[in-house]
Structures are given as structure tokens and as C-alpha cells.
Amino acid sequence: MLYAMILVCVVFTSTLSGVLGMAGGMILMTVLVLSLNVASAMLLHGAVQAMANGSRAWFLRRNIRWRLLPLYLIGAALALAGFTLLAVVPNVGLVLLLVGLFPWLARVSGRLQGLDVTRPATTIACGLIVTSAQLLAGASGPLLDVFYLRAPLTRHEVVANKALTQALGHVLKIVYYGFVISVSSDLPLWLFAAAIGCAVLGTRLGTRLLERWNDADFRKVSQAIILIIATYCVGQGLWMLFI
Q: Which residue in 42, 62, 153, 187 could disulfide with 157, CB within 3.0 to 4.6 Å?
């Protein structure tokens, strides 16, 4: 029953991310850390999200701005190097708290609201900060969204470019937890394969639904959903840390 619930959640969250370009990974991370140990959650989440985001980037590949990728990778490499030196494995409560705090910090900070991922220095900072968040909290979609709020991009470009960078970040997360930290998972291999298949299915459904939206509604609804989920994560994280 637990594995079946996880697979259903993968389809739902991948579809949601296919429409909004975010939120699905954060919901899935919340479900996994509440159901599994942190090591297994990080590895399964990384595999699912790498495939979900990778397939979404492929489906929307005509909308990718490739010039952003080299600078983003510089920031991501710096983050991975730093975490490799520290070898950090967070606890469940901290993961949930960080996942929930990122979008709220982004909304209350005027400076963060003015970030634009198409600017070179901001692109490097995006790679560094977002990859660090992925390695520490598992999901970083809400934080990545901060760099796209003021970017002169269409909804298709936002979803496509976020998908590409998120896919790379989740691959780095697998490398970090699977090889640098060398954690092992007690989950069966068939679950990883089934979850990856569900991720592709949900992603395809989501990208089809994206065509029915307009840019204004896309930004309005995505911001509202992400803050609702973030509030729950903060509350659950604080409960697990202090109660």
C-alpha cells in the first residue's frame, strides 16, 4: 500500500509540475520524508524528479534558452563542491522546514523579488543557491521560482528552463547522496523503475494541460499554490523539530 501510494503521488505531482513548472517536487519530497528514511527519500526523489524534469525539458525543448546553462552549471558545481567537503545529511524536520521557508523568504524579501535569471551574475547565483537547496532540502522549486518571477519569459520558457536546471540538480543530488555520502536505500529496484515511468506519464499529462493556460493565470495560480504548500511544510517541520 505504501509503494502504491508513492506511485500515485508521483503521477499527481509530475502532472502538477508539468502545468506549473514547480510545486510537484516539493509535495513529493514532503510525502517521501514522512514515509521513508531521509536517505531513501532523497535517492527516490532524485531519480523521479530527474526523469520528470528531464522529460518535461525534452517535451518543451524548443523553449529552452541554452545560453543560461553554462553559467548555471558554474554555480551548481560550486554548491556540489561545498557540500562534498561538508558531507551533510539533514534530518526530516529540518528538510520540511527548509522546503517550506524558501518560498516565504522569497516573497517577503524585496531584493529577491527583483531577481532575473536572464542576467549573467544572477544565473550563477541561481545555480549555487538552488543546487544547495536541493542537496540540503531535497526540493528547491519554490526557491528557483524566485529567479523567474521578473524574468522576461513566457510560461513555456519558464517551465522548460526550470525543468532543465532542476533535472541537472537532481542528478547532482543522486551523485551526492549515492556516491559522496554513500548512503544506501532499502527500497526495491522495481519501485525506482515504476516511479520513473509514472513520472514521465504525469509530466506528459501536465505539459498537455499547460497549453490550456495563459501567462497571467499561470503566474497567479502557481504563486498561490506554492505558498499554501509551503505553509504546511513549515508547520510540519516545526512540529517534528520541537514537539
A: 153
